[in-house]
Amino acid sequence: MNKQPKPGFKPGEEPLNYQPPEAHFGYASGPEVQTQISRRQRRGRIMYLALASATIVAILALTALLYTIVNTSFGLVAIEYENEPDKLVLDLQKEVLLGDEETVSSEDDNELVAGIIDDPYAVGFFGYSYYQNNRDNLRIVSIDNVEANAGTVESGEYSLARPLFIYSTQEIMAENPAVNAFINYFLTHVNEEIDDVGYFSLSQERLGEAQDLWKSANELDVPGWAVVEPDGIGGDMQMAGSSTVNPLTQRMLEGFSAGGYTGTATNESIGSGAGFRRFCVEAETDISNASRAIKPGEFAACRSNQRLPLEFQVGSDAIAVTVSAQNDFLTNVTTEELRQIFTTADNWSDVNPQWPDEKIKRWIPGADSGTLDFFEETVFPVELQDLEKPLLVGILADHISTGLGRRLESEQRFFEDELVYFTAEEWADMCSRVEPAAGCTLPARTQENVLLLVEERVVEPKYVAVWPLVDSIFRRSEIEEEVFITYPNAELKFHSWINPRFLSSPQSSSPELAGVRTALLGSLWVILITIVFSFPIGVGAAIYLEEYATDTPINRIIQTNINNLAGVPSIIYGMLGLAVFVRVFEPITSGALLGYADPTTANGRTIVSAGLTLGLLILPIIIISGQEAIRAVPNSMRQAGMALGATKWQTIWHHVLPSALPGILTGTILAVSRALGETAPLVVVGASTFITVDPNSPFSKFTTLPAQIYQWTSRPQAEFQNLAASAIIVLLVLLLTLNATAIFLRNRFARRAQ
Amino acid sequence: MSLQETPFSGNGHLAIEAKDMNVYYGDFRAVKAISFPIVSNQITALIGPSGCGKSTVLRAFNRMNDLVPTSWMEGSVLFHGYNIYSEDVDPVEIRRRIGMVFQKPNPFPKSIYENVAWGARINGYKGEVDELVEESLHQAALWDEVKDKLNESGYSLSGGQQQRLCIARTLAVKPEIVLMDEPTSALDPVSTLRIEELIQELKKNYTIIIVTHNMQQAGRASDYTAFFNMDQDRAGYLVEYDNTDELFTNPKNELTEQYITGRFG
After folding, report:
1. Which residues from chain B sit within 8 angstroms of residue A643, using beta carbons?
2. Cβ B38 vs Cβ B177: under 8 Å
3. Other C-beta atoms within 10 Å of A408: how many?
4. Residue B20 Cα distances to A410, A591, B37, B57, B62, angstroms
5. Are A156 and A338 in contact (CB under 8 A)?
6. Which residues pair with A483 in a beta bridge?
7. pLDDT tier, B10 (very low <50, low <70, confident <90, very high otherwise)
8. What CA–CA distance (Å, rounded) separates B219 from A117?
């Protein structure tokens, strides 16, 4: 109802005696008011919904765009290495350890034991069994205050220990009685034999768990252990896997055969990983030996091959770090001390000042032994990028030719005070030439630089498969399985395609090494030229047209043309740029006239041509937005200035332009953003070339980010799509940075203008 | 005698004089055949109904009409006996010596100090700018209110203060004549009164010509009053020009009487 407060009306009180007027002087009255107003309001609500929907559509579109970019910029990659980085580090460490003159290495553990027994300053490590056999003369050292015994080894507290497993499946055990019986025999007799083979026996409890698993696989529900005698069991068995477990399996097999097994069994030592492949993927083996637990990808592969692995722990392997019984100072070491003892330290006192100032004598297993690998992996888990520069140079030198090494060193030397590939005379000679090598003046390579070289020349990663982010998160196990099955040598890693290396590397034909550095610099150069060219000219034209030009037919034609030019397709500007800047003005745009380029090879396809072309492209936008901004400055401002005796230009410069600048800058931001994202005209002007050299002057050849993105997206390999997505992120960040700067400037001017 | 050499006019002298002045906007004649003298160190009010051309006449005194692209004029405006519309006169000089205050306060989007100092700077003032700023703000009766916030924006002031700032800005370039185009029409009564008091103060040093719609204002604040009206072609013409007391108490023209008694306008 149409209620109006009347005189005397108090808030909260109903107005009394209020009668709506009969006629509202030509406006609606009575019930018609209600319907008429609600009709108007409904129209408003419909418009509100339409506007909100438009916003939602815009947000959705932007979200979808961002989703695509982010989804492609991060994700899992399967990498195959020419040389696996972990192995490189391991080999290097072994080399360093074995190369030390105080280190004695032997394949014969007894020799090690003998060496340690009589020397109070000796230290060594080997399988636990050898310590046990010689425990009267040797003393085992606790690691991080954990002593090696059955309890700590089984629980994993003792760091230099690992479990030993055999794997099979319920189906195999059901189909092949020999396998079933053998596992039963294994679990029955393993603790009798394992000490002799050299490993830790399981506790009754842990062994009981394995036995329960066997019982449940056989669907037996009896108290205690059900022993199956091997007598009379036939059928063949295939076994393969870990070289560590292999001797134990072999010993059990001997006993199994001695007990009356009549079939043929093979037992190959091929390593845990290869064993799982044979077991899960190729489905050839019945039992897989492993010195580690099955990985998710391997498990998934098994499962999809209708093989659900059953895991039987059969023992533990432990390394004993031992000293002579005569040693009276070393009872416990931390992992860090252990690392020092076996790497950098020469004397015991180097590690701990309370220890004697005597040389450390190291006794270690031979290079081919699994024990040494296991020790290295556990005690020195070092990543390639954590290695110091000399070690990286060592790795590099081990894997590249001398010629390449000399070239790399002449480009930039490895060490400030030492030469790797040159003699001092050669180096001095090279540097005294008319054109000395770059390495003569540059400072030595950094660790990061050498690391890049190692990755590029030695590790040589190759992305064999890539997955987008969403798949990487939600389909991780399937991907792991796929990699395990399809790419046996590949490592699966989460990879951010956009990373410091991507930003700092030049264009390359291999996606592992390609980066956006050249394109990024090219874009910056081009946009710089564009701004320098179009901003002053555009603003100048806008001032002229708004403040000086009178309303004549010619000026009207000019104005109309400028408005129309803003709508001309950008490719037309590209053709114009090609015809004018690249061809006609070639002597200038190639830099030949200014002495920057050889006149005979000069080519106008340079940054300056591109910048001028883009400058032309955005000129109308800057002029039009500049005119709008200048027109919006109130006339009173001009009059105030003029009335004080200022000239027209003084008034424009001091008052009109500062007031218009925020608006001019807004237009320029939009225009420059457009220029930064342009591809077509640049391709015409000549940005499509594949270049790896940084642009260093306006007369350089160039590529830009959008051109690079365009080029990458048109390549067939999937990896380049990821690179393109990352380059888009770089472009967006660049755009946001430029805009933020401009907006910051604009806000400063806007604040000053208030 | 060139304009530059003319002496500063003394008390009671002729400050500026319009002679047979016609101002056109394109084909339209806005004012016709205006001739009247302005006495120096006096306040002359221009009154008349809307559209009678009094603002145009005012702006003709410092060539502000030049800023309207289509405007042109006939006749002359004599300043120290010299036609400011002669070809060898630069309007820039005229506008420094004949300042103008506008209807709406229009300070520059700059600090209070800069608002006052700017005119001095661009005109190549040779003295101490700080002193000039202080002096001008004193003259505009604004100094005490703004002396502690000279670096704040001119927009931070109230409407009346802004208008006094605009007056200070005008005074800083040391004009001989100050033209005021309805300077209080956008202000509240208290601010209006302050500006009127200020104008009375200013007349000691300046010749003031003020356009006003407010009859009381013209009556109480001015020494001379010129009443304009427009003819059937909408061209403004001068009806009567006299001493203010005379014109308000004893108008010679019937139109004037009708206008000041509120019977038309």
Report:
1. 62, 64, 95, 99-100, 102, 170
2. yes
3. 21
4. 92, 66, 11, 12, 16
5. no
6. none
7. very low
8. 125
Give, in order, the Cα–Cα distances in Å from A250 to each of A241, A262, A574, A750, B210: 12, 16, 76, 85, 119
Q: Considering chain B, what percentage of its residues have pLDDT values greater than 70?
A: 95
Cα–Cα distance between A275 and A291 in angstroms, integer? 10
- Mean pLDDT, range B5-33, rounded to an integer: 77
Instruction: Using an 8 Å CB-CB cutoff, list chain A residues near B118.
Output: 644, 654
Cα A322 to Cα A143: distance, rounded to the nearest angstrom:
11
- What are the structural domains, with CATH classification, of chain A? 85-151+321-382 (3.40.190), 161-318 (3.40.190), 389-448 (no CATH), 517-753 (1.10.3720.10)
Strand (E) or helix (H) holding A507: none
Q: Are A215 and A222 in contact (CB under 8 A)?
A: yes
**Residue-level pLDDT at A1:** 47
Sign of the alpha-carbon dihedral angle for A28, A34, A40, A43: negative
φ, ψ of residue A474 in degrees (nearest 5): -95, -15
In a 13 Å sphere around the CA of B44, the CA atoms on its Cβ side amount to 28
Mutate which of A546, A635, A644 to test chain B, going by most B C-beta atoms within 10 A?
A644
| Structure-block tokens of residue B136 | 């001008």
Quick one: tokens of A436? 């000395």
φ, ψ for residue A294, nearest 5 deg:
-65, 140
User: What pLDDT score does A56 carry?
Assistant: 97
Given a contact cutoff of 8 angstroms between Cβ atoms, the answer to whether B29 and B235 are in contact is yes
What is the predicted pLDDT for the residue at A362?
85
CB A240 within 8 A of CB A270: yes
User: Which ipTM was obtained for this model?
Assistant: 0.89
Task: Chain A: give the shortest CA distance to residue B264, in Å.
Answer: 31
How confident is the model over B91-121, as pLDDT tens digits? 898 999 999 999 999 999 889 999 999 999 9
Looking at residue A623, its pLDDT comes to 95
State how far the Cα of A663 lies from the Cα of A661, in Å rounded to an integer.
5
Strand pairing report for A74-81 and A309-324: unpaired
Class of residue A670 by CB neighbours under 10 A (exposed 0-12, middle 13-18, buried 19+): middle
- CB contact (8 A) between residue A643 and residue B69: no
Distance of alpha carbon B202 from alpha carbon A693, whole angstroms:
73
CB B109 within 8 A of CB B101: no
Closest chain A residue to B175, measured at CA = A644
Q: Do A622 and A535 meet the contact criterion of CB atoms below 8 Å apart? A: yes
Other CB atoms within 10 Å distance of the CB of residue A352:
16
Contact across the interface for B93 and A658, Cβ inside 8 Å: no
Identity of the residue numbered B195? I
Tokens 């805009």, residue? A739
Q: Do B123 and A644 touch (CB under 8 A)?
A: yes
Average pLDDT per consecutive 10 residues, chain A (754 residues; last block may be shorter): 52 59 68 86 95 96 92 90 82 78 76 82 81 80 83 82 89 89 90 83 87 89 84 87 86 89 87 86 90 84 86 88 84 84 82 85 76 78 79 86 86 83 84 79 84 85 89 89 83 88 84 87 92 95 92 90 90 92 85 70 81 93 94 92 92 92 89 89 78 80 88 86 91 90 82 60
Of the partner residues A550, A643, A654, the one whose CB lies closest to the CB of residue B62 = A643
* Cα Dmax for chain A: 123
Yes or no, beta carbons of A754 and B122 under 8 Å apart: no
- Tokens matching residue B193: 């009164």
Nearest to A321 by CA among A457, A518, A158: A158
**Radius of gyration, CA atoms only, chain B:** 18
pLDDT of residue B28: 92
Helix (H, G, I), strand (E, B) or coil at A514: coil
> What does the DSSP assignment read for B12-49?
TSEEEEEEEEEEEETTEEEEEEEEEEEETTSEEEEE-S
